[in-house]
Amino acid sequence: VSLNKQSKKLCKREKVFNDMNDPLNKLQKELKTTAAVAMTDASSKLAAMELELEATETAKERAEDLLRKRETSLQDSISSSKALQQSYDELAKMNTVSLQDLKDKERALQKLQKERESLLSKTESLNVSLNKQSKKLCKREKVFNDMNDPLNKLQKE
Fold first, then answer.
1. How far apart are the first and last CA of the chain?
2. What is the pLDDT of residues 30-85, one digit of tens each?
3. d(Cα 77, Cα 90) in Å, to the nearest integer?
4. Most buried of 56, 89, 135, 142 (most Cβ within 10 A)?
5. For residue 135, what pLDDT band results from cuts at 50, 70 and 90?
6. CB 110 within 8 A of CB 68
């Protein structure tokens, strides 16, 4: 009878332990999923911005090369100065637009990097919280095991 009573108490304790453990397991899964999605999104955005930045820099270099070629042609050919001046003006506008695009994309890239750093900080904070909760769970498990030891001994006897 005593063994049955202690066995029932142990079952109740085990149920309480499992009830306390379920929210922690769910929270751990949610934290891992949220962190993975956030990191993937940030990495994808950052990679896309870096590709756009490289493409813009290449376009800028091409535009600068074209501008230099046009300037040389202007010096060599005074007779067609009006046409060359018009080409020069168009290239200067393109270069200005490309520079502005480059600056805008650099700002966007910096913003994404800050967002990524923020996400990394949040992930670290969540990991610290998870570790604390894990330690609490280990302590509870130890208490549970400590309470279970006398019952196990009694069952063996």
1. 14
2. 999 999 999 999 999 999 999 999 999 999 999 999 999 888 887 787 676 677 68
3. 18
4. 56
5. very high
6. no
Structure tokens at 156: 């063996």
Contacts of 52 (CB under 8 A, 6+ apart): 105
Give exposure, 29-48, as e/b (b: 16+ Cβ within 10 Å): eebeeebeebeeebeebeee
pTM value? 0.34
Positive or negative, the Cα torsion across 144, 147, 148, 149? positive
Residue type, 23: P
Per-residue confidence (pLDDT) for residue 80, from 0 to 100 = 67
Cα 120 to Cα 28: distance, rounded to the nearest angstrom: 17
